[in-house]
Write a structure and sequence with these properties.
Low-confidence stretches: none
Radius of gyration: 16 Å
Distance between the termini: 40 Å
Strand order of the largest sheet: 3-2-1-4
CATH class of the largest domain: Mainly Alpha
CATH topology of the largest domain: Arc Repressor Mutant, subunit A
Number of helices: 5
CATH superfamily of the largest domain: Winged helix-like DNA-binding domain superfamily/Winged helix DNA-binding domain
CATH architecture of the largest domain: Orthogonal Bundle
Strand content: 15-25%
Structural class: alpha/beta
Shape: globular
Length: about 160
């Protein structure tokens, strides 16, 4: 299946630029860093795409401390196991961290912590699907595509706010 043309918007956050990539119907990509720079990429400076407008607002609300969950149309393309892992991550409450083993158990896949870690690493919409809330055994910070400093900052940010 061909990937739809995406428009991109960048949100300035306390932990650096956060890029959102969306079609007219869903968010397909969300990541820390700047969007790709090739000529096929359309950065929506004025944010005309309604999905990007909504996503940008919700990311800003998250970092303002007024939003704890995202309510956005997302397109998660991956294997059935990856989609199952991402669905489980989506159920981790704001301000809480679980281990890869606990996530595997939540998925009904005990003993598959390594496979869960691999699936989490391919999460196409970080923050929206909160892969930063999954940590190693004993709470050790491990594996975050955007660096452990960002993961640590996100966890500390959430821990400092009282979940409602």
């Amino acid at each position: 299946m061909a990937m739809k043309a995406l428009s991109y918007a960048v949100v300035d956050t306390p932990v650096g630029p956060f890029t959102l990539g969306a079609s007219e119907s869903a968010i397909h990509k969300a990541f820390f860093g700047k969007p790709p720079t090739d000529s096929s990429v359309k950065v929506d400076a004025n944010v005309a795409n309604p999905v990007l407008i909504l996503a940008k607002e919700q990311v800003e609300q998250y970092f303002a401390g007024t939003r704890q969950t995202f309510s956005l149309p997302v397109s998660l393309e991956g294997t059935p196991f990856q989609r199952k892992a991402w669905a489980a991550m989506s159920r981790i409450p704001f301000g809480k961290a679980i281990s890869y083993s606990e996530q595997a158990e939540l998925m009904g896949e005990p003993g598959k912590a390594r496979a869960v870690g691999m699936a989490n690493g391919r999460n196409p919409v970080c923050l929206i699907v909160p892969c930063h809330r999954v940590v190693g055994k004993n709470g050790n910070l491990t594996g975050y595509a955007f660096g452990l400093d960002i993961k640590r900052s996100l966890l500390a940010f959430e821990a400092g706010l009282e979940p409602s």
